[in-house]
Amino acid sequence: MSKGKLAKFADMASYPHVFEYPYSAVDNVPFEMRGKWNESFFKNDHPIVLELGCGRGEYTVGLGRLFPDKNFIGVDIKGARMWSGATDSLQADMKNVAFLRTNIEIIDRFFSENEVSEIWLTFSDPQMKKATKRLTSTYFMERYRRFLKPDGIIHLKTDSNFMFTYTRYMIEENSLPVDVMTEDLYYSGMADEILSIKTYYEQQWLDRGLNIKYIKFHLPKEGELHEPDVEIELDEYRSYNRSKRSGLQTSK
């Protein structure tokens, strides 16, 4: 698994279950499978689940193994990382797993109304400087509404206290229904087979003694969404292989 980036991108271009539509291509190439994922690719009518910001694809592949009666699509812009999950699922001949390499800001271009049942957000960058870049912001929630089924489910699993706190305030501000919320997943008794799938970075954060937080909530289609107007303490630690996230102390 030590291939260079160019070799990985060449592999990805040949994989039948990988679709690549970054900003540079999406305007020129129509995505004809929008609204037809079940019919044209998966060849079944099983629910579709997205992992947004899938990284190496550990959750996409892990969930695909646990739930053969659901279809899973990992979405990320970083193809060299995605290669790991794409290769694993191809070698395992998994028919219920696919990968979409694109920018999440345009995710609604690839799915039609009511086409997706659930979204997983696994260790998303908390984007502490700008609310509209956070994957649990109302900016993104409005996009998710365009393709989620009525009362669709969103899972957030994060190491970031900022991301967890911001999402909690967003949920409270908009009275979104919550099924599960915990600030310490692995000591809550809720870490079942699904939630115990560990990504590469998650294991490192656990080794550092960081708590893993989890929220499962629903996103109704009706009602205007509002951003929470709150001050939230920023994360001070450094993520692995990332620069310090911010020097500020609070952020809206």
From TrEMBL:
It comes from the Bacteria. One of its GO terms (molecular function) is tRNA (guanine(46)-N7)-methyltransferase activity. The keyword S-adenosyl-L-methionine applies. It catalyses: guanosine(46) in tRNA + S-adenosyl-L-methionine = N(7)-methylguanosine(46) in tRNA + S-adenosyl-L-homocysteine. One of its GO terms (cellular component) is tRNA methyltransferase complex. S-adenosyl-L-methionine binds at residues 51, 76, 103, 125. It is an enzyme of class 2 (transferase). Keywords: Methyltransferase, S-adenosyl-L-methionine, Transferase, tRNA processing. It holds the Pfam family Methyltransf_4. The keyword NADP does not apply. Catalyzes the formation of N(7)-methylguanine at position 46 (m7G46) in tRNA. Belongs to the class I-like SAM-binding methyltransferase superfamily. TrmB family. This is tRNA (guanine-N(7)-)-methyltransferase. It comes from Bacteroides intestinalis. The lineage of its organism: Bacteria, Pseudomonadati, Bacteroidota, Bacteroidia, Bacteroidales.
